[in-house]
Amino acid sequence: MIQVRDISKSYGNLQVLSDINLDIMKSEIVSIVGPSGAGKTTLLQIIGTLERPDSGKVLYDGEDVMSLKDARLAKFRNRNIGFVFQFHQLLPEFTVVENVAMPALIGGSSRAAAFSKAKELIEYLGLADRADHKPAQLSGGERQRAAVARALVNSPRVVLADEPSGSLDSHNRRELHKLFFDLRRDMGHTFVIVTHDESLAADTDRIIHMRDGHITEIINQKDIIA
Ligand code: ADP
Ligand code: ADP
To answer: Which residue ranges does the record assign to the ABC transporter domain (predicted)?
Structure first.
């Protein structure tokens, strides 16, 4: 579904990514692990079209998205990619349901459609009684679930998560991991997750190891289980 082809990226003299190639299948849950500074976040941002590489391509179902101009790329991103970050980045002045509906409203959905989809997801994620609360009134785990709901509101092809459980305690961390697998089972979502959490990585279909801007190893966990 996603093909990363010969991606390189430098910041000044620092080569952050060197000739990265990677294929991600539909409904796959892939983790990216490696030491700090390995280039994991940069790779995720390029897959997510938030950053452009110096060279190389990212193809979504065969479409070379890096050839799109900024405005069309932003539209593509809004429709097709959901993001979950370590610090959830919910807007503090809006309620949970408004935060979740926001990407749909930005994408041009009607208010009715956006809020209906947002409420459906909030219910699925067990946040129904928090829908009209502001983020500050939520626990860390609830905020992160709200961020997941927001990432899903436009039914994206892929959800990209950067240290999604980094700010959570071990209970909420397990719950968030379980949620990703439930979403894949129920809705077929694809996840690419940058994580330092070895127990999360150990559950994913494939573990991509990175170091110094290179993919050093890909461990196919399905083969191990099968
Ligand atoms: P990781 O996620 O594996 O820790 P990053 O992709 O965040 O790695 O960063 C890789 C390297 O690139 C680091 O040395 C980081 O400081 C540098 N870097 C990342 N983004 C930028 C940027 N926008 N400008 C300059 N350097 C950057
Ligand atoms: P991570 O915890 O995943 O390694 P960082 O905290 O290194 O991520 O980076 C967070 C954000 O800051 C990223 O968007 C990255 O591109 C940016 N960034 C990282 N290092 C630098 C840097 N040296 N200069 C500018 N931006 C940077």
So the answer is: 2-226
The mean of the pLDDT values for the chain is 93
Q: Which two tokens stand for residue 96?
A: 């949970």
Ligand 2, atom 13, residue with closest C-alpha: 41
What is the CA(218)–ligand 1 centre distance, in A? 21
Give the tens place of pLDDT for each residue, 172-192.
888 888 999 999 999 899 999
Distance 14 CA to ligand 2 centre (A): 13
Residues with CB under 6 A from ligand 1: 11, 14, 16, 34, 36-42
Token pair recorded at residue 85? 């970050």
pLDDT of 224 strictly over 60 = no
pTM: 0.87
Which ipTM did the prediction report?
Answer: 0.65
The ligand minimizing its distance to the Cα of 16 is: 1
226 occurs within a structural domain: no
| Tally of structural domains, the chain | 1
> Nearest ligand, CA of residue 32?
1
- Report CA dihedral (1, 62, 22, 56) to the nearest 10 degrees: -150
Region of 60 please: left (phi>0), alpha (psi -120 to 50) or beta.
beta
Q: Write the residue with the smallest CA distance to atom 5 of ligand 2.
A: 41
Of the listed ligands, the closest to the CA of 33 is 1
3-state secondary structure of 215: strand
What CATH number has the domain bearing residue 114?
Answer: 3.40.50.300
